[in-house]
């Protein structure tokens, strides 16, 4: 059985990232730094043999994906299942604002639970793991780029390795592979 390699990439920076605002399903565009990060990612991936590019349909991810795909001579397939976790009423707020307005929810979040009125971690996991498995299955033996979000990447890493790891920086990457039907962290 052939191994499908999946390179997860977080979108480039937005003004909301720079200001520390929770984005969730909100749709701010990349800022100039984010476009520069996407161009650098495209340059880094040139010649890596990427066969397909998928992206969340949220603008910050799809813009990043389009910049990379243009350099690689590919098109982007958008998938709503690759979106970031829906943070509900926390969207657009800073950590400080959330801690002031929703102290009990913020305390739950600090303790590792979901404290907002949006999507649960389980709902996010079902959605993004299912999407990446479906994408990998559609590209047996190929190398595929998936541009998504920090929370989605941590969820996929938790699924593949049992540990969400540290937050990934804007335009950072994590390599996975689909091996015998299982997603695993891939070193190469």
Give a verbal description of the structure.
The protein has a six-stranded mixed beta sheet, sandwiched between helices. The chain has helices at residues 15-19, 32-45, 59-72, 95-101, 103-110, 121-138, 150-161, and strands at residues 4-10, 50-55, 76-78, 143-148, 173-179, 182-185. It is α/β, with parallel strands linked by helices and 188 residues long. The chain is 41% helix and 18% strand.
Order of strands in the sheet with most strands: 3-2-4-1-5-6
From the structure provided, what is the oligomeric state, counting identical versus distinct chains? single chain
| Topology order in helix (H) and strand (E) letters | EHHEHEHHHEHEE
How many DSSP H or I helices?
Answer: 7
Structural class: alpha/beta
Q: Overall 3D geometry?
A: globular
- Detail the poorly predicted runs: none
Roughly what percent helix?
40-55%
Q: Can you give the mean pLDDT?
A: 95
Please outline the major beta sheet.
Answer: 6 strands, mixed
The portion of residues forming beta strands comes to 15-25%
Strand count:
6
**CA gyration radius, whole angstroms:** 16 Å
Terminal Cα span: 18 Å
């Amino acid at each position: 059985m052939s191994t499908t390699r999946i390179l997860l990439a977080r979108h480039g920076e937005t003004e909301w990232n720079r200001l520390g605002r929770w984005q969730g399903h909100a749709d701010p565009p990349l800022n100039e730094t984010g476009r520069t990060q996407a161009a650098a990612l495209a340059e880094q991936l040139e010649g890596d043999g990427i066969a397909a590019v998928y992206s969340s349909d949220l603008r910050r991810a799809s813009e990043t994906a389009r910049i990379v795909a243009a350099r690689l001579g590919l098109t982007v397939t958008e998938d709503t299942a690759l979106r970031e976790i829906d943070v509900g009423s926390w969207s657009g707020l800073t950590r400080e604002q959330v801690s002031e307005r929703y102290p009990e929810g913020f305390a739950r979040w600090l303790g590792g639970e979901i404290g907002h009125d949006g999507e649960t971690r389980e709902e996010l996991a079902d959605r993004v793991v299912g999407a990446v498995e479906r994408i990998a299955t559609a590209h047996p033996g190929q190398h595929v780029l998936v541009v998504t979000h920090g929370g989605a990447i941590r969820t996929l890493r938790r699924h593949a390795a049992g540990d969400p790891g540290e937050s990934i920086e804007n335009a950072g990457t994590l390599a996975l592979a689909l091996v015998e039907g299982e997603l695993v962290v891939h070193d190469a």
